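S.,

Sequence below, as promised.
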Amino acid sequence: MVLSMVEKACRKCHYITEGNVCPNCRSTDLSEDFSGLVIIFDPENSVIAKNMNIEKKGRYAIKVR
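The prediction came back faster than expected:
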């Protein structure tokens, strides 16, 4: 039997994680209901990261419900 982890997005910073606590901002306010995905490799030089107020590289949801 294989248990698969469900990805969740943080409602505060939109970081996508499989855990129950956001490793980015330490929030526990996570949702399985999110859409869109952006991967940030270089937050300092990324226009998208600046628009989304992202300071750390990683996977982020576009919209979290």
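DSSP finds one helix and five strands in the chain.

Coffee later?
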